[in-house]
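ok so I'm stuck.
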Amino acid sequence: MSLADETFPRLLARQAQTRPTEVALQEKLYGIWQPITWQEYAERVRDFGHGLASLGVARGDMVAVLGDNRPEWLIAELAAQSIGAAVVGIYPTSLDEEIVHVLTTARTRVVVAEDQEQVDKLLKIKSLAPDLEHVVFYDPHGLESYTQEWLLPFGDVEQAGRSWGAEHPGWFEEQVEAGTPDDIAVVCTTSGTTSRPKLGQLSHRNLLSMAESLVSIDPLGPKDRFVSFLPLAWIGEQMIAVACGLAQGLTLSFPEDASTQRNDLREIGPHVMFSPPRIWESMLSDVQVRIDEAGWLKRKVFGLGYAVGDRVAAKRLRGKRPSPVDRGLLVLADWFALAPVRNQLGLTRIQRAYTGGAPLGPDVFSFFHAIGVNLKQIYGQTEICGLAVVHIDDDIRFHSVGVPIPGCELRISDDGEIQLRSPAVFQGYVGNPEATAEAMTEDGWLRTGDAGYLDDGQLVVIDRAKDVQTTPTGTRFSSAFIENKIKFSPYVEEAVVFGTAEIVAMIVIDPNTVGSWAEGEHLTYTTFTDLAGKPETYRLIADEVHRANVDLPEEIRVRRFMLLFKQLDPDDDEITRTRKVRRNVIVERYADLIAALGRGDDRVSITNTVAYQDGTVAKREIDIAIFDLADHQPSENSKSRPVWSTRR
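replied:
not stuck anymore, here's the structure
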């Protein structure tokens, strides 16, 4: 039987039957890993499924989960699916309006929430979500004095489920068997860069056909480990942690806290990892800072080892076999330089590593391959279970996203749009048939909305099709392409490009790498705003923009830029929960700054409103410089630097 003909609950039952005492999930609490076996996992799913039934959840309903990744998140998901319901994930950082939008669109009656913070959000918006009847919380700290009858501890629902199950013997097993691969399993929100996110419905068949295709390329097995730290509301985490996890029996580990993720990652040493570019970029930034702070001998040893690793990786990426000399040198380089860095990053056992959601800079790609991490690009979107195209081992080109996975067809339409067709294509948007119809062609292909082309069989993604622009001279270009060129710098966290006749940019510095650079330059500063406004910082970023411009056609080179006084924040609606820029919000909020950039002003002032945690609000006037690159000459020390260092 094909994996695509199964369901998540039946796969869980199979794992519990064949591997009852092996660890399925583990969570770190108070510094100690707490394991849950496959049998215990299945039993808790059954109890909570009975508990949901006692609350009135029925086949066809949707149960929402709001909170950080914990075993209870997956127990709630599998329990809902076992009795014929679907689960819709809500990002734990979501604000009131976003939560209301999801709950009302999905007509959700039961929400499983993590802790007091999330319960307080639901208390605040309950009157705006008329279908909401029960909130089940799985972290009781701080909730002891809450008396609302519709608030229920997770353990109490499990206990009620055991009683309900005793009165309905065999009912749960009947529901699991009654489930079909075409039932809706998960509802994931789209990125929502230009409007409210849509709710994409994904069936068991959609997700498991994708998992089957991926493991046919990159095999995974029951001995492999995966650390689940990215939101389970994100399709990427559902793709690996849930679909591949249940299909292949992976052990999932949940870090204790966001602040302990890096240490917990090192302890577990996962075999497979999928993260958006910002995670890989952050890892490289950490390495750069640590190496820059090391002594000259350690820097020299790492530099020599990295050169060997980079040379061998370049050959392997082209499908060539390294020479015996190179293989011997790699053993020494790995022992003295590369393996310690992998260990520090928690990547000692890594066999499969993926990135997706946005382009990753070639420098970042080459760094991880040089230290021995098999990092590959994934291309997809919520509507096709997050994965349609992937790099294949020994044929990885940094400018492409790879080739279609088995079972997926790809074509480029006459107007340059990437279109996809596979068993993983979604079942439509909840409550939005018009958008569903717009997402599909008449002959059954998914419209991605992305522009791209094929280069010797590999897909190259340009940008969102609607964002491809034309200069007055007729040159077509993508703002995202220019932005990514700038963001390849370790000193740049975000860049937003504007204009057609003249290209200008709003840039956000990376506080870690720029802060480290400032310390090395003996440059004192107090706040992010202070650091971003310093002339020395402007000259540093000017060198980086100049370097990006060299690789761009003359007509689309950046002419002027400014450094924003703050980081872009999802709580300010400036970027999505998956760190994609909401361009329409930026254009509206920073209209005066963008206009000054376009006019070529030297400086511009803005009044910024700051809301503090105690509820007070203050306004401050901020003066921002605009840097014109017309006469800029790169600094004498701006020669090419090694990828692994911010020093020149």
